[in-house]
Amino acid sequence: MSASRRSGTTDELGPDEPGRPGRGDDGPTPADGEQPVVGPDGADLLAALLDGMDAALCAFDGDGVVTHWNREAERILGWSAEEAVGRKGFAGWAVREADAEDIEGRLMAAMHAPGRQVHEFALLTKDGGRVLVRTQSAAVPGPDGKPAGLYCAFSEVHAQIDLERSIALSEALFEDASWGVVLVDADLRPAVVNVHAARALGTGRTAALGRPLGELLTRGAEELENALTHVLAEGAPPAPAELWVGVRTPDGEKRRCWRSGFLRLASPLAEEPVPLGVGWIFQDVTEAKQGEQEASLLRFRANQLHRAARAAAECEDPAESATVHLDFALAGFADHALVDRVMGDVEGAGPLRLVRVASTPAGGPGPSTLAGHAGLPVRYAEGHPALQCVARAGSVRAGSGSVPADEAREWARARQWPEDTVHALCAVLRSRGRTLGVVTFLRGGGRAAFERSDAVYAEDVAVRIATALDLAELTAPAPGRGDG
Questions:
Q1: What are phi and psi of 268, to 5 degrees?
Q2: Is-contact 425 395, C-beta < 8 A?
Q3: pLDDT: is 477 or 408 the higher one?
Q4: Which end of the chain is more exposed for a tag (fewer CB within 10 A), N or C?
């Protein structure tokens, strides 16, 4: 089915191509013995192009007669090309008689107006319905440069509005959105980055384009790439995912938690879905997640203190209740713990000496055991964190730092701690205004260093252990006194 009249349509829509035979040119002719190059007829090619358009299109000559009518126009209004081409104007078939003069006047005025003219009006469908359309009309110059007709492209208003909304949404997401938006191509590299995402990544919008994610993130890139690969293969996940990443800042690396949603992008122009990449939308929820973790940790530690107090209350021996508090404190907090008692008076003359009274097994998990029955002092060198803790009557944190494993083991051995120790926290034991000793919590290389919140918890545990040890001293029988 031809969407245009074959006579004169090409001349009206544009000048002839130079060098084309049969158009009055002296173009090249095939040499003897050669087959002429056979191409599609100009009118057939034009009809195919018009029928392949996504927008409805019709054209009028200078007298207002319809010369072109494509398949999209037929789909919207129901009138076929045979029924539309050759009619003068829209009156009586595509518009109501009452509206025909106004509509045709506005359309034909486009022949003498610069640029494109945009209008909205109602057209009639073949079955008598009405469709509100938005039109763009412009003049078509003839060979002499004067208007020879006009074309009119139109679409249903709601479809046009949907398109404009989609474009407006896209522009807003990449300019004003308060969350990060990144379009990642099929090679897992950013293709478009909005302002918020560029700021979160610590780079510019253009600087991030085409770079591997491993260059933009110091950690978490593997998890992100795995999520993007899954979305490309399987589609969008049913719920957002929370990813912990490391980003570079002027102050060094910072860990951030990004709540991320993913959408697989497919081309709307392909017959079968062709993945164009992934739309990644994320929001920084680091502060909220840290608040949740801290609240959960506080609840757990408060529960541990409560359980330890109930269990210690059932112990007949106050010294045993001190080890109960120590065991409950270790859960999720440290790998090992030591309790050292001061020998003599802290303010007395001579060097400060400590005696081990309780400890956890160094070779593996197990309950704390009482020790120090012989009363021999621990061989702590001068400046040891435990001695500093007693001297200051305050908590002391220590760590081996970023050193090789053999140096870290030597650091722990020099302080009389298990060899796998890399972080230590000492809390003073005080009761009735006296310093009784120190409790030391130790962590291995698989744990983070102790923080201020950890020191507060250790001090709470130390108060309970100190009370138990003080009570054990008060209830101990006097030397040389028997039971009888």
A1: -80, -5
A2: yes
A3: 408
A4: C
Closest CA to 466 of 432, 425, 418: 432
Give the angle subtended at the CA of 379 by the CAs of 374 and 380, to the nearest 5°: 130
Helices (H) and strands (E) in the chain, counts: 14, 16
Q: What is the pLDDT of residues 183-216, one digit of tens each?
A: 999 889 999 999 999 999 988 888 889 999 999 9
Structure tokens, 17: 């191509």
Instruction: Report DSSP state, residue 14.
Output: S
Residue 75, beta-bridge partner list: none
Over residues 139-176, the pLDDT tens digits come to: 888 888 888 899 899 988 887 777 778 888 888 887 87
- The 3-class secondary structure across 415-450, one letter per residue, is CCCCCCEEEEEEEEEEECCEEEEEEEEEEECCCCCC
CA distance 245 to 227: 13
CB 303, CB 328: distance < 8 Å: no
Q: Alpha-carbon distance 358 to 268, whole Å?
A: 71
Chain segment 441-463, per-residue pLDDT in tens: 999 988 899 999 999 999 999 99
Nearest alpha carbon to residue 330 among 439, 418, 431: 439
Whether the per-residue pLDDT at 355 is higher than 80: the answer is yes
* Structural contact between residues 421 and 444, judged by C-beta atoms closer than 8 angstroms: yes
Write out pLDDT tens, residues 224-261.
999 999 999 888 889 999 999 999 888 888 999 999 99
Phi, psi at 149, each rounded to 5°: 170, -160
DSSP string, 75-118: HHH---HHHHTT-BSSBTTTB-HHHHHHHHHHHHGGGGSSS-EE
Residue 85 near residue 67, CB atoms below 8 Å: yes
Please tell me the pTM assigned to this model: 0.60
Torsion angle of C-alpha atoms 205, 210, 216, 220, degrees rounded to 10: 120
CA distance 68 to 151: 9
For residue 123, the SS3 value is strand
Are 193 and 205 in contact by the 8 Å Cβ rule? The answer is yes
DSSP assignment letter at 239: S
Nearest to residue 207, comparing CAs of 215, 279, 179?
Answer: 215
